[in-house]
Design goal:
It is built from 14 helices and four strands. The chain is mostly helical. 16% of the residues are buried.
């Protein structure tokens, strides 16, 4: 009688670490949602990640959802959240009327209120959009990477403002154009006039059209340096390189044709200044300094042999 070999079970480490399909991942599991309390703006994203898991695993109990949300944060934070009146209560009395149910949504709003800056309404404001526009306009060195970053950050803020009727579409287009430096905007406007000849000159161009025209003009410039600075948005700090001769060299540079135009303008201004100085000197009569003048009649210093300047000459003239 032959015995069949004992079947072997092979389990990978990843399989052992994965949570079962019937339960939420345990705390500190690599797949568990996480939130850093030092970044309040990410709190709403933490709630969204958990709500995706609730839907996947069919969790509909509001009490369970509250417990899972408090499960994956720090111990002290979980205690604070669980201490809210909306966490334990399921209903609240309202006078003589029927009790009002306290849902997971009510508790979630109470938690978000504990962290100023976590609400989307404080993350994206009209003032922040205006600040971004001004910061971008004030940049001295402008490159493709700078322009692309300005477009992405502007779109993120303006999209939320448009969705909540804080600004209008024409205002969005006007603000985007307002944040582009004058020299670059002149080039973009010329290209858009060619590409869109029927566009009314007083109407602002679409944001995407302006972005594509700007990319076309900035081809060949750096694509990674420079992030527009706005309140709540950290800029990239460019560290200058110092050579052995103590010459500071920055990583930013401009296109060749822009440099040639700048040099030509500087030379023309210098030539105009020199010409003005020469004309001023030629038109001004030369008056010698009497203190250092020598009189050729009497040989004394301090005056010249001009009528009324030399007393000796005047005496001789009177004597005939």
């Amino acid at each position: 009688m032959t015995l069949s070999p004992t079947p072997t079970i092979q389990l990978s480490l990843l399989t052992l670490m994965e949570p079962t399909a019937q339960c939420m991942p345990p705390r500190n599991h690599f797949s568990a949602p996480k939130w850093d309390e030092s970044k309040p703006r990410e709190l709403t994203q933490y709630f969204k990640e958990l709500e995706y898991l609730f839907r996947d695993w069919g969790i509909t109990s509001h009490t369970q959802m509250k417990e899972y949300v408090a499960r994956y944060v720090m111990y002290d934070t979980a205690g604070t959240w669980a201490g809210l009146s909306e966490f334990a209560a399921t209903t609240i009395p309202v006078g003589d009327q029927a009790a009002t149910a306290i849902s997971y949504k009510n508790w979630k709003e109470a938690v978000i209120c504990l962290y100023p800056g976590a609400e989307e309404s404080t993350c994206y404001t009209v003032n922040k959009l205006h600040q971004l526009v001004q910061d971008n306009f004030d940049l001295s060195a402008y490159m493709l990477g700078t322009f692309s970053t300005y477009y992405r950050v502007f779109q993120k803020i303006s999209w939320w403002l448009l969705q909540h009727s804080k600004i209008h579409a024409n205002e969005e287009r006007h603000l985007f154009q307002k944040g582009i430096p004058t020299l670059l905007w002149a080039k973009i406007a010329r290209r858009l006039e060619i590409l869109k000849p029927t566009h009314h000159p007083k109407d602002p161009y679409d944001v995407k059209d302006v972005y594509e025209a700007g990319n076309w003009h900035l081809k060949g410039t750096d694509m990674s340096l420079g992030i527009p600075c706005a309140k709540g948005i950290l800029p990239v700090t460019i560290q200058p390189q110092v050579t052995t001769n103590n010459t500071v060299i920055t990583d930013s540079y401009i296109k060749k044709e822009d440099m040639e135009a700048t040099i030509s303008t500087a030379v023309a201004s210098a030539m105009t200044c020199i010409e003005t100085m020469i004309n001023t000197q030629l038109s001004t009569p030369h008056t010698p300094n009497a203190a250092n003048s020598l009189c050729h009649f009497c040989g004394e210093l301090g005056h010249t042999m001009s009528r009324g300047c030399c007393n000796t000459l005047e005496q001789y003239i009177c004597l005939g």
